């Protein structure tokens, strides 16, 4: 740490040492300070305070992820130089509507709304296929729509230690009593 203070302007600014006015603390002083922090369990309290500030400012990934996919339409026309459709794009049916294009699969931090992962595929690739690529690995809970039903049973999810919150399919939801 002592060497880092002398070598790096960024470290000096972080610890508040101006070498024009004072010398850097020596290794013994830094060690005593570290032991003082550990003895009084201040490192854990500092960690909690820093994480709270980062979370409040939306700069820290939380323990939850929301995954979803959206179709990006492309012109299905073959009126181009090659008289062909783009080979990377395909058609898919959503509801009663047909679409041609690609699909963006997105992983978002559940707390802050920050996007932390994105993959693209042809539109006909099922949402559930890209789930593993959308997780950052530290989440405890994953939220998803009905397109991800059965994701916990997939082979690539065997090691995932998460709680899955998957929305029910419309057909499985019983009609709510009007009373």
From TrEMBL:
It comes from the Bacteria. Residues 63-174 form the Transposase IS4-like domain. Pfam families: DDE_Tnp_1. The keyword Metal-binding does not apply. Keywords: DNA recombination, DNA-binding, Transposition. The keyword Ribosomal protein does not apply. Belongs to the transposase 11 family. This is Transposase IS4-like domain-containing protein.
């Amino acid at each position: 740490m002592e060497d880092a203070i002398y070598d790096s302007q960024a470290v000096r600014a972080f610890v508040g040492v101006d070498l024009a006015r004072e010398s850097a603390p020596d290794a013994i002083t830094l060690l005593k300070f570290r032991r003082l922090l550990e003895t009084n369990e201040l490192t854990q309290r500092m960690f909690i305070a820093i994480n709270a500030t980062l979370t409040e400012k939306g700069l820290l990934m939380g323990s939850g992820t929301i995954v979803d996919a959206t179709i990006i339409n492309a012109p299905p026309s073959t009126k181009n130089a090659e008289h062909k459709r783009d080979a990377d794009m395909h058609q898919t049916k959503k509801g009663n509507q047909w679409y041609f294009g690609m699909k963006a699969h997105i992983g978002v931090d559940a707390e802050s709304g920050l996007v932390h992962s994105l993959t693209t595929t042809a539109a006909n690739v099922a949402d559930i296929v890209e789930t593993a690529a959308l997780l950052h690995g530290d989440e405890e809970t994953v939220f998803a729509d009905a397109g991800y039903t059965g994701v916990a049973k997939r082979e690539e999810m065997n090691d995932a230690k998460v709680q899955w919150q998957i929305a029910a399919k419309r057909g499985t939801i019983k009609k709510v009593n009007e009373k």
